[in-house]
Specification:
Elements lengths: L9 E3 L2 E3 L7 H28 L3 H5 L1 H22 L6 H22 L7 H14 L10 H32 L12 H16 L10
Helix pairs in contact: 1-3, 1-4, 3-4, 3-5, 3-6, 4-6, 5-6
């Protein structure tokens, strides 16, 4: 017993319905760009305050400041990715926000940029910890502890950043937008779309007949 079933639409009642694309890649890329830009901007600020202005509180905890910057950036990027698409709702927004996190993580692994998703925290903690904890003989007595702190900062940044990106996407998808941001469908355009659907229904499809 064999059968072949293939269709491009799902029928509910009398009207065929097609699934809508939930992930909008243009919005995902826009959210990822914003997340990266915010991460770089805030990281430069904390480094300037910690080592340019010599603020001890920031300098001694630079890895966590960098991690917090990346997490905030992921939330903003996820929110933008969920808010921008035409398909509204918290579910599409959630998927777009999580995709922003995944895209940034994959890009960071492919191009080897450790400053993405808390990598800067680990890298900065290793280097800066060795400098600030140098002993009398110039040996970095606190380098191991600083390395451990930086690595944990990187891990928690990635994990919490995933949750924040998803949360931001869900909030963005469920946030109402101004009416001016919606496209107005004219009667002529609606009729053309209806004609296209009707023509699509009338097209005979081969290989779609069920055989038992």
């Amino acid at each position: 017993m064999s059968y072949v079933a293939s269709t491009r639409s799902t029928t509910y009642g009398a009207e065929p319905r097609r699934g809508r694309t939930l992930i909008h890649w243009g919005s995902v890329f826009a959210g990822a760009v914003w997340a990266l830009a915010i991460t770089v901007l805030l990281s430069a600020l904390w480094l300037a305050l910690g080592y340019g202005s010599e603020i001890a509180g920031i300098r001694d905890n630079i890895e966590w400041f960098l991690a917090g910057s990346a997490m905030l950036a992921l939330f903003v990027g996820g929110f933008l990715a969920g808010w921008a698409p035409g398909v509204r709702g918290w579910t599409p927004g959630l998927l777009n926000g999580m995709t922003v996190w995944g895209l940034i993580l994959v890009v960071s692994l492919l191009i080897g940029v450790p400053s993405v998703l808390g990598g800067a925290a680990a890298f900065g903690g290793n280097i800066i910890g060795g400098i600030t904890n140098a002993g009398a003989n110039g040996a970095p007595v606190g380098a191991t502890q600083a390395a451990d702190t930086g690595l944990w900062a990187g891990f928690w940044t990635a994990l919490i950043g995933f949750a924040l990106a998803a949360l931001g996407g869900a909030l963005g998808g469920s946030t109402p937008r101004d009416e001016s941001m919606y496209e107005t469908m004219t009667p002529d355009r609606e009729e053309r779309r209806a004609d296209v659907v009707d023509e699509d229904r009338d097209i005979p499809r081969t290989g779609t007949t069920d055989r038992y």
